[in-house]
Amino acid sequence: MTSCVSPRSPRPWTDLLADTADIRQSSDVIAEMRKIMRLPVGARVAVAMSGGVDSSAVAALLVEAGYEVFGLTARLYDVDPTLIGRAGTCCAPEDARDARSVAWQLGIRHYTLDEREVFARVVIDRFVADYDRGDTPNPCVECNRTLKFEVLVQEARALGAQALATGHYARLDLDEHGQPVLRRGVDPQKDQSYFLHPLSPEVGKFVRFPLGTWQKAQVRGHAARLGVPVANKRESMDVCFVAASTPADFVAGHRGARPGAIVDLAGTQLGRHAGIAGFAVGQRHGLGLPPQHPEAPPWYVVDKRPDGTIVVGPHEALRATTVQLRDLSWVGAEPPVDTELLLQVRHRGKPVPARIQQSADGVVTLAVLDDLFAAGRGQSGVLFDGDRVLGGGIISDASRAVA
Questions:
Q1: Is-catalytic flag, 91?
Q2: Together in a domain, 221 and 268
Q3: Rounded to two decimals, what is the model's pTM?
Q4: Of residues 90, 91, 140, 143, which has the active-site annotation?
Q5: Annotated catalytic, 240?
Q6: Are residues 255 and 271 in contact, defined by beta-carbon separation less than 8 angstroms?
Q7: Do 277 and 359 fall into the same domain?
Q8: In this structure, are 85 and 202 located in the same domain?
Q9: Residue 382 CA to chain centroid, in angstroms?
């Protein structure tokens, strides 16, 4: 179900430009927006508006650049105070209100899509199930794949848009053959290319990321310049629907805590735990184990088994020698076997060299060529060629240096 809010009487984009103190700077920004959009002035463009400063700034900048802009906001979840405690800071109900307020301020139409059922089924239920069986899911990747790259793109096209722009910090262009090229955002603290690897070639030709060459401070500055009411809004959280809760409490609230044994690499039981969702591969503290001998190496969580068992071992046992990826998606063509590239397994993780050993039946096996620690099942493994995103998948296995 789509709801639409009509804007106030729109102001011409030339009037917005005339209000600015630095005409030259504004002219440069307009030229940059038009280059990124690859569309003629006046083209109809949808903006995925989350209610935050980034997507709101995109909408304002595209209005200033002379495009016919409208906003799309997906309502993803309701606040459940018994499980969450408060609203999240991304895509929560109050964020949808902020998006409508920005749209009204800019004089553009705004549409709200009720996607709560899809989000609950595809993102939240999967998150809970994955955590409960010992995986480490990345719900932001699935949200991008399903909600932004499927639902919002489909809705934007149905409403006559020639492109969908978002506030992601990543660079997206076309090569000489008209195929999308996805690269890291220029701001290393805001780069979101890791989360965008499910971008298909078809969708990559339709979406635009206007902020890929920008620093966050620049975005806030231009949002303030254009009178965007959320210019100083705080940053959003990684897992919006968990909010003030922890993943363990959130999963327990949906399925109940699942206690189990804590064992060493030899299978010797060292203790018990209250719930598997409260542990992460690579975790050192808070294991609840008896004190070790002062000279003994500390325990780390090495594995979380589907039966609820937590396996601990020395730090060296976290070193991965090979990684398998399933549920693959490629921005362009799949790289051939024996290709050396960079593998990143966390949003802020350091990319490490890896080589494709085998690719068959939708699974890629990579030999890790440098130190890679704490790669857990369920995490996204994203493959880069320099700063270019090739694609990625979900880690289904990570063989350790210490058995």
A1: no
A2: no
A3: 0.88
A4: 143
A5: yes
A6: no
A7: no
A8: yes
A9: 12
